[in-house]
Amino acid sequence: MRLSSSFLPTLKEVPAEAQIASHRFMLRTGMVRQMSSGIYAWLPAGLRVLNKIADIVREEQDAINAQEVLMPTLQSADLWKRSGRYDAYGPEMLRIVDRHKRDLLYGPTNEEMITDIFDQFVTSYKGLPALLYQIQWKFRDEIRPRFGVMRGREFYMKDGYSFDLDYDSAVVTYHKMMLAYLRTFQRIGVKAIPMLADTGPIGGDLSHEFIILAPTGESGIFFDSAFAEQNWLEMPVDINDKDSLAAFFKRMTSFYAATDEKHDEAEWEKVPQERKLEGRGIEVGQIFYFGTKYTESMDVSVTGSDSKKIYPHMGSYGIGVSRLVGAIIESSHDENGIIWPDAVAPFKAVIINLGMKDQACKDVCEALYQTDPENFLYDDRDERAGAKFADADLMGHPWQIIVGPRGVAQNVVEVKRRKTGQRAEVPVDQVLDYLSSHQD
Amino acid sequence: MRLSSSFLPTLKEVPAEAQIASHRFMLRTGMVRQMSSGIYAWLPAGLRVLNKIADIVREEQDAINAQEVLMPTLQSADLWKRSGRYDAYGPEMLRIVDRHKRDLLYGPTNEEMITDIFDQFVTSYKGLPALLYQIQWKFRDEIRPRFGVMRGREFYMKDGYSFDLDYDSAVVTYHKMMLAYLRTFQRIGVKAIPMLADTGPIGGDLSHEFIILAPTGESGIFFDSAFAEQNWLEMPVDINDKDSLAAFFKRMTSFYAATDEKHDEAEWEKVPQERKLEGRGIEVGQIFYFGTKYTESMDVSVTGSDSKKIYPHMGSYGIGVSRLVGAIIESSHDENGIIWPDAVAPFKAVIINLGMKDQACKDVCEALYQTDPENFLYDDRDERAGAKFADADLMGHPWQIIVGPRGVAQNVVEVKRRKTGQRAEVPVDQVLDYLSSHQD
């Protein structure tokens, strides 16, 4: 995109209501605009990040053969009366009455709806296991929305649901999902550590929260640093082999990781001193096996091979896609602005033209830009160099390609890596190679 | 996808409430499921079509340099009070009260919201023209939702908005959008004819509805068949040259096309008899220049080059994405099922295995399937041939690749084109070439 003709407005003033870095930077870089309390419009730069995260989430769900569906945002209250949650949910559920005086609600989550869909289409054990997910807008009427998109009211979330014939099969599904989540966060470029979460009356150990390390996080966390060094993308796991999945899961859970709620001092003592990491974190996902809670309460069953009635075992699997945008910035910024991981940056690189009146500079910029106009942002504004540098740091593009008259005369440009601040002079015809060979 | 392990359920019984073909076929093929009156969940096959349409819409909007944003589904009532439409809109607007007793609404359209966003970020004539769009869920509380996704309450729509400095510049934008729309519908594979629509108090001729020919359509239409033969994808139009755009627009509007509301018998008489086409049609899009209606009522202005206050001229541009899914089926089906245009079919082809117990058949199917598992559907179910053929016709895949023991023994498969019923014996190793060389 060309910055001069794009809707990528930056604001000079920091809005007063923004208390944390991600909220400030998202407003200043025009990624989002608040339209009502806790309700945001996503402008082009923000939307690009949101979509890139959603695409990675989608690819990893598809890789474990989860099937994508899309449920409506509005739901009938009747569905929630069947499960008994309509009265129990409380004031965070946005309740709506339509013109025919029927009770609707804006879905905060979809266990009831997916169970109802499953009920119509799957009647036999042969239809199991079933693994469905969606990426859709949801609404929770938070009493005090804050921290921008991190605790908004209308939010974008991947929610997945599984149906299995029995506990053993549900465990296999849980292991697959754990792998998909670890791969997803690693591809996005953040360290999200799964931590054992409360399973309530269900019991067992099949509930994990995924937490990103960030000083503004709501939970205290304790974990073994060896965990963060694992490469889940290169781990040889066969998702069609339950023993391979179980071995992976056992290895994964062998590293200590707990929020302060579940922290166990005795286990923590066993972690070698140099690998103990404490800090604060932001929850960006959760996976949870909850058995037959909804299938029983809604009386949704299948017929087994022996013709007996079976209540499928369910799990649910969430990733806060819009929340992640804020959480990534919380965990990756400095005083000058955002530092985007390569995989989710709105643009791969910004081309900064310092010689707007110099034909040679313009030619070099234009030629570079045309090699990948979809992924390069070309700062072709009539602005001083200082303003262009400041905006580039603020917006956090992984690379800055700085094109000035002096360099161009020698056929070189300057390339700066945002994350490290490292600079290099690179011949014009080697810029693309330089970027791809110097990516992490 | 493998049909045996996919969530692609077909229903044998026709639901009683479905009066028209598209509604019946969408329910029978498990593309959607009704969750409340006029509110649908999209299952995998339906979602694939919805996304393919949205992607084509998006690419053609991006091609005219429209910028994608994403506005929230819920809006503050205050915004609509500013424009005066909050009271005027009537009972189709779904009005909501949140826990703090603030008035919200589920957006039926976004003129107010986009104007408010524009207001914050664009203050000078230098920011014009601005062209923004989104593809997002909307809600209209129809009194009698019917015809499935064609007249639902929660619906998916592309809505775009333009801001120009004056009328002349708004006309150029209008011409660009007309071109993008004609290209969009042609790529989707439907004949959508733009027809002059009512401009109300705005006047002029800058309002067109795009109408797909279908016997169940709500409007009577009259048009010159020469229109439908134009190839907009190969028309040499330079979108950066207003004269080129104007010439294209003049040519486009030289063909007679009108709904019964705007039908002009005298003009109709001038169309050669053999080119006169009459029928019924479904509206799937509208483009509309409405001047300073919202910028004046909401007092949103920019500063001109002479420092004077200017109210930008606006237009809005809609495409009913979820409605199109139904409309395409209305215009393209037979008694056996859907006939998908290639570009938006959920799958490019179905591989029908007639020899589930024959190792050679399984090997051929598997090898074909693996060449493109994302776009091929492999019918690997343990079903009779008749059921597989019927489902293939019902689901409307553009191609059927029929693999049976007798053919495989001679190293051939049968390829059937759904649209024409034409069949051919094709050597196994030439199937992919055959499909690509026999596409329209």
Features:
5-stranded mixed sheet, BirA Bifunctional Protein, domain 2, Pro-tRNA_synthetase (chains A, B), Proline--tRNA ligase (chains A, B), EC 6.1.1.15 (chains A, B), Rossmann fold, 2 domains, homodimer, Pro-tRNA-synth_IIa_bac-type (chains A, B), 23 strands, 33% helix, 440 residues, ligase (chains A, B)
Question: Your description of this structure?
Answer:
Chains A, B: It catalyses: tRNA(Pro) + L-proline + ATP = L-prolyl-tRNA(Pro) + AMP + diphosphate. Chains A, B: It holds the Pfam family HGTP_anticodon. The structure is a homodimer. Chain A is about 35% helix and about 30% strand. The first copy, chain A, contains 15 helices and 23 strands. In chain A, strands 3, 7, 8, 9, 10, 11, 12, 13 and 16 form a 9-stranded mixed beta sheet that branches. The model of chain A has no long low-confidence stretch (mean pLDDT about 95). The interface between A and B is large, with 53 and 53 residues.
